[in-house]
């Protein structure tokens, strides 16, 4: 295995872990009835604990950005968003 292939494999594993962490948190928030979303003319609106945190055209991105903001991540656009 080349160095490039090893780095690629490690990056994929890291991305998979981050994705699993995100959707685990989403599931917990959902079960606790703390996260809400709706599709409007402006896109997907997502709120956590009755606080609006994201409006995006993509449901996936709206959830990712809302959770990143909920966790206090300063760079919400890159947090949890696949590149």
Describe this structure in words.
The chain has 83 residues and is an alpha+beta fold. The chain has one domain. Helices cover 49% and strands 22% of the residues. It is built from 2 helices and 3 strands. It has helices at residues 3-31, 59-70; strands spanning 35-40, 43-48, 51-56. It has a 3-stranded antiparallel sheet with strand order 1-2-3. A hairpin with a 2-residue loop joins strand 1 and strand 2. It starts with a helix and ends in a 13-residue tail after the last helix. The mean pLDDT is 88.
Give the helix proportion (percent range).
40-55%
Q: Which consecutive residue ranges, at least 5 long each, have pLDDT under 50?
A: none
Q: End-to-end distance, in Å?
A: 24 Å
Helix count equals 2
Question: Structural class, judged by helices and strands?
Answer: alpha+beta
Arrangement of strands in the largest sheet: 1-2-3
* Spatial extent as radius of gyration: 15 Å
Strand content: 15-25%
SSE string, helices as H and strands as E? HEEEH
Number of strands: 3
Summary tags:
alpha+beta; 3 strands; 83 residues
Which SSEs are present, and which pair or pack?
Layout: H1 3-31, E1 35-40, E2 43-48, E3 51-56, H2 59-70
In a nutshell, what does this entry contain?
With 83 residues, this protein is α+β, with helices and mostly antiparallel strands. It is 49% helix and 22% strand.
